[in-house]
Amino acid sequence: DIVMTQTPSSQAVSAGEKVTMSCKSSQSLLYSENKKNYLAWYQQKPGQSPKLLISWASTRESGVPDRFIGSGSGTDFTLTISSVQAEDLAVYYCEQYYDTPFTFGSGTKLEIK
Amino acid sequence: EVQLVESGGGLVQPGRSLKLSCAASGFTFSNYGMAWVCQAPTKGLEWVASISTGGGNTYYRDSVKGRFTISRDNAKNTLYLQMDSLRSEDTATYYCARHAGTGSSYYFDYWGQGVMVTVSS
After folding, report:
1. Torsions phi, psi of A86, nearest 5?
2. Cβ distance B15 to B68 under 8 Å?
3. Is B61 on the interface with A (CB under 8 A)?
4. Chain A interface, mutation test: which of B107, B109, B110, most A Cβ atoms within 10 Å?
5. Cβ-based neighbours of A69, under 8 Å, separated by 6 or more
6. Which of B22, B102, B31 minimizes the C-alpha distance to A49?
7. Which of A8, A76, A91, B63 has the maximum number of C-beta atoms within 10 A of its C-beta?
8. What is the DSSP annotation of B55-83?
9. What is the Cα B34 distance to its own chain's centre?
10. Do the beta carbons of residue A107 and residue A6 sit within 8 Å?
């Protein structure tokens, strides 16, 4: 199974600050035939179901604010929120869909100071 | 608007069965792979099973193989999860999720609101 490791487990920032969170996979998620990274980021707000933010490591979903930026390739990936807003309070999960079993990281909980 | 509405959860004793349903609307159901993802209380997300557009291909995590069966009825726009021989560790909220493409090698672009399954005597 591909193990997804997210760090930090929690992070507290003030509104307006920039935040970065890391996701590392135990094997490469880059598929050589199409040069795509099979990595997605989800946001889960308290009491809600997960919401897709980013697919293919860096493609932002329609309607997702441009302050959410996905980057990385291979085994190392980053989600950056350029200027955190109060409504960004949530747990953020990365997920690999390169191979079954599809696996998620344990999440990074974002708290707003 | 894409909507996924789960039902069928509840309290069940260990060893018993439960069948979850997910009613889909707002898109052509038969064109998308579908999946179940669970989340134990205060824990992270865990993929359970996926099914191809026509239902001919199914995939499971090891811990549910032989106990859970994913299926779909494209005429009724409904996804199912038959859960047999339930264990306490199956206690979780179960989400119905849509794969973003025809196969299962796609991320989950829409999620239902979830249904709680509690396995306890």
Report:
1. -60, -35
2. no
3. yes
4. B107
5. A58, A60, A79, A80, A81, A82
6. B22
7. A91
8. SS-EEE-GGGTTTEEEEEETTTTEEEEEE
9. 8
10. yes
Q: Express each pLDDT in B62-110 by its tens digit.
A: 999 999 999 999 999 999 999 999 999 999 999 999 999 777 679 999 9
Mind listing the pLDDT tens digit for each residue in A55-102?
Answer: 999 999 999 999 999 999 999 999 999 999 999 999 999 999 999 999
Q: CA Rg, chain B, in Å? A: 13
φ and ψ of A17, to 5 deg: -80, 160
> How many helices (H) and strands (E) would you count in chain A?
0, 13
User: How far is residue A102's CA from residue A29's CA, in Å, rounded to a whole number?
Assistant: 12
CB atoms within 10 A of CB B46: 18
Q: How long is chain B?
A: 121
Whether the bond into A50 is cis, omega within 30 of 0: no
Cis before B14? omega within 30: no
CB-based contact, B57 to chain A, within 8 Å? no
Asked if the Cβ–Cβ distance from B45 to A49 is below 8 Å, we say: no
Q: Does any CB of chain B come closer than 8 Å to the CB of residue A98?
A: yes
Cβ-defined contact of B106 to A107 (cutoff 8 Å)? no
